[in-house]
Specification:
Layout (H helix, E strand, L loop, with lengths): L2 H11 L6 H6 L15 H14 L13 H12 L2 H22 L8 H20 L11 H14 L2 H7 L24
Length: about 190
């Protein structure tokens, strides 16, 4: 089984779906040179804050506790093709530039409320981009699509995400095909 199939299977098991473009960005293990330009403390801090804004700490651990930024760096650096890596890294620059334009500070230095406001606006931009009728096959994915999907995949496949955010039984008992559901119950890991 190759990496793309394994990730798709994990996403299906989690009850989520990765976009076809995200799966297309995943190359095999032997796709060529690795991208280590992302491995800077500044990039790690920026990714950690973006992920934490997407999945903040509440009564359950947030994305920072799950070290989602580490997962994102490995996925983008080792698994994405050069075109997808460029979209992703250019997107990090765009987020920082937009933060400086709106708030006169980089993304890492603004308040959590400002981060949420900024990422909400970028997500609306992503939705509009995906609705465009003039898009063609092979057009690049909106950079925030990669960031959201990698954050969700990294979080819900991490120990804190799978055991604290989802219902988890370390050693399950018998199979029960029909389990009562109450509104607000967590999904099963």
């Amino acid at each position: 089984m190759n990496r793309r199939d394994a990730i798709r299977n994990v996403a299906i098991l989690m009850g989520t779906a990765l976009s076809a473009s995200t799966l297309a960005a995943l190359e095999g293990c032997s796709s060529g040179p690795k991208n280590y330009t992302l491995q800077t403390p500044e990039t790690r801090a920026l990714l950690a804050e973006i992920a934490e804004t997407i999945i903040p700490e509440t009564s359950t651990p947030g994305a920072k506790a799950a070290k989602v930024e580490e997962f994102m760096l490995v996925m983008v650096g080792d698994c994405y093709d050069e075109k997808a890596q460029k979209v992703f890294t250019d997107g990090l620059d765009k987020i920082n530039d937009e933060s400086k334009k709106r708030f006169s500070k980089g993304f890492v230095d603004i308040t959590p409320e400002q981060r949420t406001e900024l990422l909400t606006a970028i997500d609306k931009e992503r939705i509009e981009y995906n609705k465009r009728k003039d898009k063609k096959e092979g057009d690049p994915v909106h950079y925030f699509q990669y960031m959201k999907e990698l954050t969700l995949l990294g979080y819900f496949t991490s120990e804190p995400g799978a055991t604290k955010a989802l219902r988890y039984i370390k050693v399950p008992g018998k199979y029960e095909g029909c389990v009562p559901y109450k509104k607000g119950d967590k999904a099963w890991a």
